[in-house]
Amino acid sequence: MDAVARVRWAAVGAGGRVARRTSAWWERAVAAREHRAPQPLVHAVLEVVVDGATTRVDMGPTWGRTAAGRRVVRTGPVGSRLLGRCPLFRYEVRTVHGPDATPGVLAVSADVPVPRDLLEHLTDVPVWTWGRDEAGTGDMWTSNSVVAWLLGRAGVTSLGPPAGHRAPGWDAGLRA
User: Fold this and answer.
1) Span 70-75, average pLDDT
2) Mean pLDDT along residues 69-94
3) Which helix (H) or strand (E) holds 6?
4) How far from 123 is each of 16, 41, 93, 117, CA to CA, in Å?
5) H-helix or E-strand containing 46?
6) Cα(1)–Cα(111) distance, integer angstroms
7) Which residue, among 3, 1, 4, has the nearest Cα to 111 in the 3D structure?
């Protein structure tokens, strides 16, 4: 193992009002159903450092992004497979090289050793429907699931969201 990984935890919706508002509403509804207080939601971005070069792994909408600096590895549907036929309801798993531009970073995990070939497993990431539990894990598939899935594949299960925060989909990635 000559590589390390870390997770940057950013506030959900730090880059835009729509995600922040809809996620807050959704978390209040889930918390009420689970009889608990709502928690701030976080979004995981995985950073893998190999030979001093940092690559970030993220998942987000396919629309509204410029092609510069990113490599799309996989795409999948958002909400339902039927909706996923429309580009507005598609997500992409992508890698980005260069300086970090993640808005609203709240915490960065400690570095953990990972196999050098971890990024080669990106093509194996499941492309289940975002927001659904198609894997039967009890948690929906999200961007957090992709990061947790990759870390779990590398044998890293010790990382999780910052204390007092929730990362929807994290458990789905670890269980899948």
Assistant:
1) 89
2) 91
3) strand 3-11
4) 29, 27, 9, 12
5) strand 42-50
6) 13
7) 4
